[in-house]
Design brief:
By secondary structure, this protein is of the alpha/beta class. The chain has three domains: 9-193, Alpha-Beta Complex (Lambda Exonuclease, Chain A); 227-296, CRISPR-associated endonuclease Cas1, N-terminal domain (Ribosomal Protein L15, Chain: K, domain 2), CATH 3.100.10; 304-547, Four Helix Bundle (Hemerythrin (Met), subunit A) (Up-down Bundle). It is built from 17 helices and 20 strands. The chain is elongated and about 95 Å long. The chain binds iron/sulfur cluster (SF4).
């Protein structure tokens, strides 16, 4: 960023910078934001403060009147900072800023931690710059209802000006994301921990260190599917209401919705869409049969730097090949694991999965890792896929008398001709949709990939990223749906050479897919519990860290 392009620094960012320079860079330069309990409570608290008089009198209009102004907005190009001060109180031209904080006061020297003290001091400097006298301020801790005085000492002023200069230099001169803190107690409380991934980065760089489950938080929101043709989604207060022929048929609390999925002719009102945009809830549109047609989001992700890294790598043929080799090898190894775990013994001689098949698939993965060109990689991938799908039937249980619940003799599509292929196609479409949304949500462009070539409307990066997850999520969903009897033969309609699930069958199949996405597994590298849906986000963020050069390789996901 050129000098003159640096906008005024919000004093809130000085707080972040003193807490951790990487946090300030992620938030201010890259526009990253994740709400957590602190930020949500902070917003509510500021809403309460943000009422009443927002203006300060002129400092030279000498008066004995008491000053009490809320949410006072000040800026100074001389200082290079701007602030919205919660409360300014005083008399005449002697004023005191009051900054509201959540939680209880810490019992430490100075009454508050350095980030809060620096933020308050910056507010005091702004008030001085605007002609007021300001020797002290207060931090009000709402948790313990205490006002802590902070004196504007020479030392604190020097610390504050040093922070302003430090943040300006970080943006202006280095223009690079600072390294994460190491084993810092600040990270578990940091709102951007799940974006920063400090422990995961350290582990992937050094293969050492304990990984605290900063990311692995519980999921609180889920996709909201609306399948019925003619169903209409509208917003009422804090709920989405689904109506069909003017009758209310379903409701969902908006805070519990992670995405809205509209099938076929299901519709949504403009106010409901606006609410989704405001809350960054993606709306995805699928055909009647469940094909992903597109999705719409609010203003989209603001971090252009991420896409810059992605595009730069996508034009580097050697790096693309390296990533593609890893993608294909991971997919083959995960297919092998799925076969190994789900192999069904058919008769007495047939005790377990043939070792030769396992050996061949391992050899396929090894060949993929060292393929010399995309063309030869495609050949290896094709051969491994044939081997896998020739044996796919062995994961499907018999329905009795040695007869398999569903016949499957190989992969076919466009259109799928039998029930298993119909389920595989739908499952891949849903997984592709999940990846497209996950990649867009973290700021990547799902349409520019490294292995799959860009073609009109093809989410190439989503297709790249889903390869390793096809067996683990999509194929596994099909195997579970069949073997548990959730989907049966009479859940399909065959017409004009194509086979499709009925409405009822599709509904149950989507249920199995969603259960799989919500299923928690132990991360094989990081050791914490995480659902597949969260895993998609972690992998997307790790891809960013790789593209930005923070970790030497992209860690493809391999299950044991
Ligand atoms: S998680 Fe830790 S290293 Fe990362 S931004 Fe937050 S405080 Fe800094």
């Amino acid at each position: 960023m050129e000098n003159q392009e640096i906008p005024l620094i919000p004093v809130r960012m000085l707080n972040e910078y003193v807490y951790c320079p990487r946090l300030a860079y992620l938030e201010w330069v890259q526009g990253e934001f994740l709400p957590n309990a602190d930020t949500v409570e902070g917003k509510i608290r500021h809403k309460r403060v943000d009422v009443g008089n927002h203006r300060l009198p002129e400092p030279d209009a000498v008066s004995a009147d008491r000053i009490h102004a809320r949410s006072v907005r000040l800026g100074s190009s001389q200082l290079g900072i701007t602030a919205v001060i919660d409360i300014v109180e005083g008399e005449g031209n002697v004023v005191t800023p009051v900054d509201y904080k959540r939680g209880k006061r810490p019992h430490i020297a100075g009454g508050a931690y350095a980030p809060e003290r620096v933020q308050l001091c910056a507010q005091a400097l702004l008030l001085r710059e605007h002609g007021f006298e300001c020797q002290r301020g207060f931090i009000y801790f709402s948790g313990s209802k205490e006002r802590i005085p902070v004196e504007m000492t020479e030392e604190l002023i020097a610390e504050t000006t040093h922070a302003i200069e430090g943040l300006r230099c970080l943006v202006k001169e280095t223009a690079a994301l600072p390294q994460p803190l190491e084993d810092s107690p600040k990270c578990p409380r940091c709102s951007l921990g799940p974006i920063c991934l400090p422990d995961e980065i350290k582990f992937l760089k050094t293969h050492q260190g304990e990984i605290r489950p900063i990311f692995a938080m519980k999921e609180t929101a889920y996709p909201f599917y609306v399948q019925k043709a003619g169903a209409f989604v509208k917003k009422e207060g804090e709920q989405f209401i689904v109506e069909y022929e003017k009758e209310k048929v379903a409701t969902a609390r908006i805070v519990e919705v992670s995405q809205v999925v509209l099938f076929g002719h299901a519709m949504m009102s403009t106010p409901a869409m606006h609410e989704c945009f405001r809350r960054e809830i993606p709306i995805t549109f699928c055909s009647y049969g469940g094909w992903f047609l597109g999705h719409t989001v609010g203003v989209g992700h603001r971090n252009a730097e991420i896409r810059e890294f992605q595009y730069r790598t996508s034009f580097d043929a050697a790096k693309c090949l390296q990533i593609a080799c890893g993608i294909v090898a991971a997919k083959i190894l995960n297919c092998r694991t799925l076969l190994r775990r789900n192999w069904k013994v058919r008769n007495d001689e047939d005790i377990n999965i043939p070792q030769e098949l396992l050996r061949l698939m391992k050899a396929d993965a090894e060949s993929a890792k060292s393929a010399g060109s995309i063309e030869s990689l495609l050949g290896i991938e094709g051969a491994a896929a044939n081997r896998y799908f020739q044996n796919f039937n062995r994961m499907i249980a018999e329905k009795g008398g040695g007869v398999c619940a569903f016949d499957f003799s190989g992969r076919n599509r466009r259109p799928p001709k039998d029930p298993v292929n119909a389920m595989l196609s739908l499952s891949y479409a849903m997984l592709g949709r999940e990846w497209t949304i996950a990649l867009s949500a973290v700021g990547l462009d799902p349409y520019r990939g490294f292995y799959h070539r860009p073609r009109f409307g093809r989410p190439a990066l989503a297709l790249d990223m889903m390869e390793a997850f096809r067996p683990l999520v999509a194929d596994s969903t099909v195997v579970t749906a069949v073997n548990t009897g959730v989907v049966r033969e009479n859940d399909f309609i065959a017409a004009a050479g194509s086979c499709n699930l009925t409405d009822e069958g599709r509904k149950r199949f989507i249920g199995v897919f969603e259960n799989r996405m919500a299923q928690e597994i132990t991360h094989p590298r990081f050791g914490y519990q995480i659902s597949y849906r969260q895993l998609l986000e972690v992998q997307s963020r790790l891809l960013i860290r790789y593209l930005a050069g923070e970790i030497p390789d992209y860690p493809h996901f391999l299950t044991r």
